């Protein structure tokens, strides 16, 4: 039987190239060999966003983005977390098996405390209970669907380990193995994507290239990539160059070897190298951009897909909750 892969997608605006290469593509690749369950983690967003329109818009955008990138809703269960009320019943169950001390140790929470300390504020300033118990909700997302593998970035590993701890505590208490223990699966790290300033591409550095940037914007951003001040004629080192690093993510072996040679030979200026990168990226990304635009013009379709996904997911969730209710004495 194939393994069950599950991951949560935070509705935080349109993804960038780094998200695409580092998270979306590997997850979609995984969905070809696993039973995949990928959901929009909209209740997680509520902890930080209280603007209903923003939540609605970001949910539709991120769903359209994944569909445009090739998520096949016939193969992959694709749903909104908020459409699966069983998640929140499981959250309540799991809270009773989660030591408060475990939550105190969560990196994300500790980082918030530290920020507050450094700014001279009360340590828990701005920390609501949703943020504090975030790892338990994430555990509920995962454990509800008998997940084997959780494809996530390294920053989420601790959360998956906490889900295992909580599951073990439940299983141990009732001497059962009814809750399956999941395993985090690292995104391929060889593909750390550099941003416009040469650091890792990240929204918080303001150095991103949006995945669906129009041609003009894409070209403009690429022209902004920071390079050194070598002149046209000088031979250039491809391996320390952000332009080349990005080029490698979008080109085939022959194209990469060709550009490498032109770097080393000299005679190619930065403007020219960037133009090559633009053309390559634009060719790869145009079909995705087109599909995204089409989907955004047909939002009823997106809602329909998510609704059907939830309709398929709910019976699985309900069966699991029913088993757990039997065990804990609620039935
Ligand atoms: N916490 C994850 C993130 O910040 C999103 C998420 C929510 C998630 N629930 C999940 C990921 C369950 C994997 C499994 O990216």
Task: Give an overview in words.
The protein is mostly helical. The chain folds into two domains: 4-98 and 133-192 and 299-328, Rossmann fold; 212-292, Tyrosyl-Transfer RNA Synthetase (Orthogonal Bundle), CATH 1.10.240.10. Helices cover 55% and strands 7% of the residues. It has 14 helices and five strands. The protein has helices at residues 17-30, 42-46, 52-68, 86-95, 100-104, 107-118, 129-132, 134-143, 157-174, 215-223, 242-250, 253-265, 270-296, 299-328, and strands at residues 4-9, 35-40, 77-80, 149-152, 183-186. A three-stranded parallel beta sheet has the order 1-2-3, sandwiched between helices. The longest helix has 30 residues, at 299-328. It is globular and about 75 Å long. The model has no long low-confidence stretch (mean pLDDT 96). The structure holds tryptophan. Tryptophan is lined by residues 6-8, 10, 41, 44, 138, 141-142, 150, 152, 156, 159. Tryptophan (TRP) is lined by residues 6-8, 10, 41, 44, 138, 141-142, 150, 152, 156, 159.
